[in-house]
Amino acid sequence: QLQLVESGGGLVQPGGSLRLSCAASGGALDVYRIGWFRQAPGKEREVVSCRSSSGGMTYYADSVKGRFTISRDNAKNTVYLQMNSLKPEDTAVYYCAAGTRPACHPIAMDYWGKGTLVTVSS
Questions:
Q1: Quick one: which of 82, 74, 67, 113 has its CA closest to 20?
Q2: What is the 8-class DSSP label of residue 30?
Q3: HEC string of 61-110?
Q4: Residue 46 CB: number of other CB atoms within 10 A?
Q5: pLDDT for res 46
Q6: Are the CB atoms for 92 and 38 separated by under 8 Å?
Q7: CB-based contacts of 107, cutoff 8 Å, min separation 6
Q8: Given phi > 0 = left and psi -120 to 50 = alpha, else beta, which region is 54?
Q9: How far is the C-alpha of 33 from the C-alpha of 102, rounded, in Å?
Q10: Most buried of 14, 36, 77, 113 (most Cβ within 10 A)?
Q11: Tens-place pLDDT, residues 52-74
């Protein structure tokens, strides 16, 4: 069974950058649709970015478009989320997920990591 472990979260000042990593074991990530999601206190989990298994489709939420980049390293079986120009409203627990269904909604994902906290504050 696929297992996902996120890392790279932390405290960063507004305007700063972080790179989140999601390392997979128990299976190859390149056969799955992969996504990054986030959940802020009191809010529903929302999709941040999503990428098809082939890499032919990449989606970004409007709130992060132009600032965040999703990528995958097949050799390391790891997916990344590069986050630049961070804003306080980006504060949330960030989760990576993988699924086989052609959708980027949380309910379409089959495997989830436990999350990593990102706090953007001065």
A1: 82
A2: G
A3: CCCCCCCEEEEEECCCCEEEEEECCCCHHHCEEEEEEEECCCCCCHHHCC
A4: 14
A5: 96
A6: yes
A7: none
A8: alpha
A9: 7
A10: 36
A11: 988 889 999 999 999 999 999 99
